[in-house]
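Chapter summary example.
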Amino acid sequence: MNYDIVVIGGGPAGLASAIEAHKKGVSSILVIERDRELGGILQQCIHNGFGLHIFREELTGPEYAERFIEALKAMGIEYKLDTMVLEIGEDKCIKAMNEIDGFMSIKAKAIILAMGCRERTRGAIAIPGTRPAGVFSAGTAQRYLNMEGYMVGKRVVILGSGDIGLIMARRMTLEGAKVLAVAELMPYSGGLTRNIVQCLNDFDIPLLLSHTVTEIKGKDRVSSVVVSKVDAHMKPIAGTEVEYECDTLLLSVGLIPENELSKQAGVEIDPRTSGPIVNESMETTVEGIFACGNVVHVHDLVDFVTAESNRAGANAAKYVIESRKKAFSVINTYSNEGITYIVPQYIRFENLEDKFNLFMRVKKVYHNAKMVVKADGVTIKEFKKNHMAPGEMENLVLEKSLLNESIKSLTVEVIKEVV
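The structure predicted for these 419 residues follows.
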């Protein structure tokens, strides 16, 4: 099998990139999805709040996904479901298999990585205690409840205040469960402010900052969990233990980009994001392999995933159509004081449009601060911010006119006080 572009992953990132590549003139496209349906995680996100940026209206996850699925089908873009990609070899040769086609060898001119991310598990955070039933990652519980029709528990404690955990606190409450508390290790929430308000405050669910679960009790099923306050070094403080009688513990303790295939393909990974290093075109360090969405870095809003994936799809199409190398002036991006990471990690000046985006997260909560962008150490733009938090991704829009081909580095830092 030969295709111009193969997209690995049929979630929001994969769908948007395939559609955009088709719009840019590439018709030979294949989308490979390992699940039984297109749409990815959106299919289990039955709450609203999607599409405000892209469609200027509020949609549920399945509604948002359906708009892209319908567009994909209308364009006649090929896709394969229940198909597992086994490896990405040299010369962009993909090995995959499913029950219908068996083992397949697929050759592509360009590949778009859109595998998304997975949840961290109990094993990743090493909570002491027994191993009873009733411990779920928040996303697993969401799928059981919203798609499979199973109620996972009646008395619930949630560890971690990521957006999925916050949304599941509300969802479990609406289904009749009692959510006793949401414990968060950090002194700030890991989710969007709107989700704290709509999912916790509106339902009088307590958010315990600087707390963690220090023990799980129960033989066959969870019977209780112990929650302790932590100090500035994230160590439990003796004497602060509170035991909650419950039958369920949901874990919302972080997401990890799915990059096993990326590494196998020789793509260089950024240790800060756990995703591929990409340029302004969303091209990885391997020529002709692009990446977008949560496989690159974890996003807050699917609308941002769509915008980023449009860029990946358009540039993959450009790569296939032009199929020629150019010399570019490379500008590396660096995160300075207060910034955890920046995506893209480098940009090519000649390939920039009139405006371009830098996505990043701050290391802690800031009020009345400013973000300072410097080119080779010289300030070129400042952004005043009333509030910034690690749980909310920052998007800085810069003009190409601020740069020139001789610049070698672009840095962003946070200055706490605005005079």
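To summarize the output: The CA atoms of residues 86 and 96 lie 5 Å apart.
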